[in-house]
Amino acid sequence: MACVRQASRSSRWRLLRSRFEDEGWIVGIQHRGCWYSRLAGKDEVADLSEFPPERIRNFSIIAHIDHGKSTLADRLLELTGTIKKGHGQPQYLDKLQVERERGITVKAQTATMFYKNVLKSNSAEAGVISPKYDYLLNLIDTPGHVDFSYEVSRSLAACQGALLVVDAAQGVQAQTVANFYLAFESNLTILPVINKIDQPTADPERVKAQLKSLFDLNPDDVLLTSAKTGQGLEHVLPAVIERIPSPSGKRDSPLRMLLLDSYYDEYKGVICHVAVVDGCLHKGDKITSSATGQVYEIFDVGIMHPELTPTGVLFTGQVGYVVSGMRSTKEARVGDTLHHAKSSVEPLRGFKPAKHMVFSGLYPADGSDFDALNAAIEKLTCNDASVSVAKETSTALGIGFRCGFLGLLHMDVFHQRLEQEYGAHVISTVPTVPYIFEYSDGSKINVQNPAALSSSPGKRIVACWEPSVIATVIIPSEYVGAVITLCSERRGEQLEYSFIDSQRVLMKYRLPLREIVVDFYDQLKSITSGYASFDYEDSEYQKSDLVKLDILLNGQPVDAMATIVHNLKAQRLGRELVEKLKKVIDRQMFEITIQAAIGSKVVARETLSAMRKNVLAKCYGGDITRKKKLLEKQKEGKKRMKRVGSVDIPQEAFHELMKVS
Ligand code: GTP
Known about the structure:
This protein is of the alpha+beta class and 661 residues long. Helix content is 26%, strand content 31%. The chain starts with a strand and ends with a helix.
């Protein structure tokens, strides 16, 4: 009998863990700070050799944010007995603390389910003993937010089909469109599911019509479900089996595995999630990475059922995990092909590299913690291969890292995970998008850090380009005017305008990436009373009129606060930035001037007056000469500090700067 336990980390548990493992029990650990342990007898897992590719289905659940993917995944896990009903942990596959706190999925999660087709077994011929389970199903729950679409695209590589979940009341949203095309371009079979049909405002017929007009999906093929009440769920898995093709690999071919994802475990090193495309893998096998040529021994292999469950073997078409002594992301490369060391194979197609939309500096809040931050980033990037990391130095903040993210939410989640899972305290600099600048000598540079941009009389900047995106916005028609105004303020160019039904409009805009990364989505939500949905894909670089805006404190430029902005917006932005800084920097013993400047031209200025310490507090009585002497001494001290320019910048100053667009 399986039981799920959540235990706090303690040395007692560490001891217990090794004892359980020695006795052949299974202990799965999800992430630091929180242990979800599942103890199961060995006999509980079906024999994987009984599942040739024809009896395997790999599918993912894709949808717009909050349309019910994780809840539907919960119900399917319960239906197949993979987790207990009423396990007390809604959205079971959202395992990270950040996912539970924010109520969103940020990591794709795989779970293997064993399924008995009850209808089929009832009609089985008398005398024929049907196997315990008919099918092995691998389900991948994916994130919905646009910043995590890289997770979705990687998950789809392990699948042959996808459940496209759409909210029965909200209908098709921007992410539904994006996810449909991701799955469609990956040649997956798409099973449309209209979820939340229990809601009073549900209108499945309208949503069916949208699916037909936008994606040409047959209304008769649409499944109607409520992941909340359980209505219609019994039809989902039979439809998966009937309509989604089985994986096409061959068991007798040499082993080829696709490395889908990885995470760092303190005890086992890197745990890799893999899809076996051809052949089979056994514990003890020697495997090679196509990318690095390194050879590893398989110490442990198994499935996620739904926690790590050792099976000692994985066959063609199956998705599981392997532990092979890899220690870092340099070894565990997502998209890599793993094969038997003795055979040579054609590498699999792998994944497109992640496209970084936003860059920001990450520095330890306490300069002496650099090594700890380095180790934390190394471990976390194992679980988030889409972040790029390079060392950099700032005069204001010391040694740190320049990291590339897929968007601002992704950046925020990465910071939160660093703090929650690894206890790292970080300061991050103003996010920037990657620009291209051309100098008068014909050379071009890619600028991911505004501080690195310099200009001299002999090497002037003559041209610059900024990245743009094609944004899709879906809104009720009454908000069209407000959205058009917002997009034009953000330097947008309308590309498409169409009705998806009688009430909803789909608009496509080309927008500079810089204009959407900070607060575009918040503004869009607020002007449309939360009804707008938004998605974007990257597009080409466009020529632009850009300038570097420096922030100076007492005349000294603070490199970590420099930003690149459009010339027309520079003055307004400079004013907003200095006003924000004036509010968050504490008054000090000397006057502080806060300036925003473009080159040598100051475009905004604020002064933070000095805090005068009451040096006369201890002077009782009226000796005026003594009082004067003390005040003179104080003035002298202030001058000295002003000259040194030692302004204390609080951490919130960097956070506040991020909110200014
Ligand atoms: P992300 O992972 O953040 O993209 O969200 P998701 O698509 O996984 O949605 P999730 O399963 O987290 O559900 C979002 C909200 O909808 C939760 O509050 C669920 O309880 C609710 N919900 C999910 N399915 C149903 C349903 O069938 N009916 C109703 N009424 N609510 C549902």
